[in-house]
């Protein structure tokens, strides 16, 4: 026989005063209304402290705290950071000492080099793929091959006297002195004396289709750069108990650099680094699985992973201005 139900008696509910309840919103957090001729700092202070605005303010505060404590601030950069014109922002933050290390995937390095050499980059893939010309320019793979051959021993992965892929590219840019050198993130990092690493997945970049690169020390140079990133991540640990830790910002890399970061965290922790207090952030126009898990999720304790969704051409200028106005 089916069980019979009666409408529940709502008069028996236990209630309590709203004064006893915790709230996620308070009128103290209302957006301000700055005047139309206000300065950036007044506008920044007018932002309500919720969701993305709160995360961005937290990121700014943690970057500044990390640098004051001489902890690393590392930016892992996807290719679109360069392709939407944000290279000068990264270069400026490097020059100001607010970024102490950069990690690029292969595509980002290609675009960085092409911007420095030619002042332009990013071909029309759909059009060039149809006629077989996709990735077939001569100058870009030639530059990579020359950069690697210029390194004594070909960017070999020995522990001493070796040069990784990022440094090899940066030093070759500085030797060649192309017309748009000032726009190169790799060159800016090398001039500032900070690490710049490049991480490739063989077969994913156009230069891998060219024999001069395929037969070069590309893989060993990138392997050495991974070991260098492991050292950077290990150094993100606080210098003193309870002090500020380092910051890792993943900007626009959906797969490769989040995977690199996860493995670097594993190596650093295996060798004894205390990374419990580090801050990680993911800045991108979409939410992706790997940044959520491998950057702002698994490696950090609850509350130390920040996700800020938005276009690079908006978020990065905003982040830079907030940093230089606050530091």
How is this structure best described in words?
The chain is α/β, with parallel strands linked by helices. The protein has one domain (53-326): Deoxyhypusine Synthase (3-Layer(aba) Sandwich), CATH 3.40.910.10. 44% of the residues lie in helices and 9% in strands. It has a 6-stranded parallel sheet with strand order 3-2-1-4-5-6, with helices on both faces. Strand 4 (247-251), helix 12 (256-270) and strand 5 form a beta-alpha-beta unit. Helix 4 (87-95) packs parallel to helix 9 (185-192) and helix 7 (139-149) crosses helix 8.
CATH C-level name: Alpha Beta
In the residues, how many domains can be counted?
1
Name the strands of the widest sheet in spatial order. Answer: 3-2-1-4-5-6
H/E topology pattern: HHEHHEHHHHHEHHEHEHEH
Give a brief rundown of this model:
Helix content is 44%, strand content 9%. With 327 residues, the protein is an alpha/beta fold.
């Amino acid at each position: 026989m089916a069980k019979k139900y009666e409408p529940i008696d709502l008069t028996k509910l236990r209630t309590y005063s709203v004064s006893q309840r915790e709230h996620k919103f308070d009128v103290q957090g209302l957006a301000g209304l700055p005047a139309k001729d206000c300065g950036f700092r007044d506008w920044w202070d007018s932002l309500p402290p919720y969701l993305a605005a709160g995360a961005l303010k937290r990121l700014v505060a943690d970057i500044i705290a990390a640098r004051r404590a001489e902890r690393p601030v590392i930016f892992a950069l996807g290719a679109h950071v360069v392709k939407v014109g944000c290279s000068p922002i990264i270069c400026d933050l490097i020059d100001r000492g607010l970024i102490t290390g950069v990690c690029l995937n292969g595509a980002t390095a290609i675009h960085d080099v092409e911007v420095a050499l030619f002042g332009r980059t990013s071909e029309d893939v759909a059009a060039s793929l149809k006629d077989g010309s996709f990735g077939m320019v001569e100058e870009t793979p030639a530059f990579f091959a020359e950069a690697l051959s210029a390194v004594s021993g070909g960017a070999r992965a020995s522990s001493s006297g070796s040069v990784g892929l990022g440094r090899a590219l940066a030093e070759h840019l500085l030797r060649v002195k192309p017309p748009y050198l000032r726009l190169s993130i790799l060159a800016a990092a090398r001039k500032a004396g900070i690490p710049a690493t490049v991480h490739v997945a063989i077969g994913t970049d156009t230069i891998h289709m060219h024999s001069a690169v395929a037969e070069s020390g590309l893989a060993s140079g990138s392997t050495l750069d991974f070991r260098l990133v492991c050292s950077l991540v290990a150094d993100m640990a606080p210098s003193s108990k309870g002090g500020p830790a380092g910051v890792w910002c993943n900007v626009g890399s959906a797969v490769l650099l989040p995977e690199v970061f996860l493995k670097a965290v594993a190596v650093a922790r295996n060798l004894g680094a205390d990374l419990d207090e580090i801050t990680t952030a993911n800045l991108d126009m979409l939410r992706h699985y790997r940044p959520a898990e491998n950057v702002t999720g698994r490696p950090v304790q609850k509350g130390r992973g920040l996700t800020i969704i938005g276009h690079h051409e908006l978020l990065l200028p905003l982040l830079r201005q907030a940093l230089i106005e606050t530091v």
